[in-house]
Amino acid sequence: MGKQMTEMLKGTLEGIVLAFLTGNPAYGYEITTWLRSQGFNEIAEGTVYALLVRIEKNGLVDVEKRPSEKGPPRKVYSLNTDGEKYLEEFWTTWGFLADRLENLRTEGK
């Protein structure tokens, strides 16, 4: 992944993860695996875990500890009402930016 992709992804990864958590509670490794299956192969697990800590701290997800077959309990994240509102704002912002960028690209100005 090039530097430009990495920089753009920093600004959107939170929204991508919140979108994945919509109706799909998951733990960190599941999220990382899903991201990689979507083509984000170079995302480090540490990046995802740092993001999960941040969205938990910001109150965008609920966390439930579930027993694990191996090791300590897993933290399972699910989108809560504040997270849904944040995600809605993310999609509105994304739509605005995507429209403007497409206009710039097609008009060449």
Task: Spell out the key features of this protein.
single chain, 109 residues, alpha+beta, three-stranded antiparallel beta sheet, 3 strands, globular
Topology overview:
Layout: H1 3-21, E1 26-27, H2 28-37, H3 45-57, E2 61-66, E3 74-79, H4 81-107
Antiparallel strand pairs: 1-3, 2-3
Helix pairs in contact: 2-3
Structural description of this entry:
The chain has 109 residues and is an alpha+beta fold. It is 63% helix and 13% strand. The protein is built from four helices and three strands, in the order αβααββα. It has helices at 3-21, 28-37, 45-57, 81-107; strands at residues 26-27, 61-66, 74-79. The protein has a three-stranded antiparallel β-sheet with strand order 1-3-2. Strand 2 (61-66) and strand 3 (74-79) form a beta hairpin. Helix 2 (28-37) crosses helix 3 (45-57). The radius of gyration is 16 Å and the shape is globular. The protein starts with a helix and ends with a helix. The mean pLDDT is 91.
Summarize the structure.
The chain has helices spanning 3-21, 28-37, 45-57, 81-107, and strands spanning 26-27, 61-66, 74-79. It has 109 residues and is an alpha+beta fold.
